[in-house]
Amino acid sequence: MITIIGATGATGSALLRRLIELEVPCRAVSRTPDNLRAAIGTNTPVEIVGADAADPQMLRDAFQGSTQLFLAMANSPRQAELETNVIDAAAHCGVRHVVKLSAPAAEPASPVAISRSHWRVEEHLAKTEMTATLLRPYAFMQKLLLNAPAIAEGVLIGAMREAPCNYIDVRDIADVAAETLLRPSLAGATYTLTGPRAFSHPELA
């Protein structure tokens, strides 16, 4: 059984849709299970479970019978703590393979707090007996749509000036995640995920 933590997020929901398309039975964990059930409907091979990542017992209950985990929680000051809770619960319940959504600059000395959090989680995961597959995508293309009104006027607001950035569609990330979950030969590696080329903000605008 594949269990998805972060099933309402951009990548988690895209993976959930992909597994539904492939008719792969899976379990989606959410703090708001009723909302998730309403979003995906009832005629799917998805088991929906309510759990809070801050509650270890709820997580253990959610992982009963699971063999694989996809972990993609929202960025927050507590991300490392909560993802560590998830990993510990998965290990306790006998999960064998974890696919974690990480970041390309996940390093202890990164100037970006989120990247340092991802590094701490990766290090914790490496200390378990579970096989770890790390997905390190660059910027999500979908986030550009938040600036759609400004882009329509030829303006793209950001802090990168003319520095290029490589954007990737979250659906492509989800496709890679599905492959690593369904093809054992791909497990246990680190994958840096990018689009076909990098663009500067002036080019995108």
Q: Span from first to last CA? A: 43 Å
Number of strands: 10
Strand content: 15-25%
CATH names the topology as Rossmann fold
CATH class: Alpha Beta
CATH architecture label name: 3-Layer(aba) Sandwich
| Helix percent band | 25-40%
Radius of gyration: 17 Å
User: How can the largest sheet be summarized?
Assistant: 7 strands, parallel
What is the domain total for the residues? Answer: 1
Average predicted confidence as pLDDT: 89
Gross geometry: globular
Uncertain regions: pLDDT < 50 for 5+ in a row?
none
**Strand order of the biggest β-sheet:** 3-2-1-4-5-6-9
User: What's the order of the H and E elements?
Assistant: EHEHEHEHEHEEHEHEEH
What would you give as the CATH superfamily?
Answer: NAD(P)-binding Rossmann-like Domain
Question: How many helical stretches?
Answer: 8
Provide the structure class.
alpha/beta
Pfam family, one: NmrA
Domain NmrA-like: 2-189
Protein name: NmrA family NAD(P)-binding protein
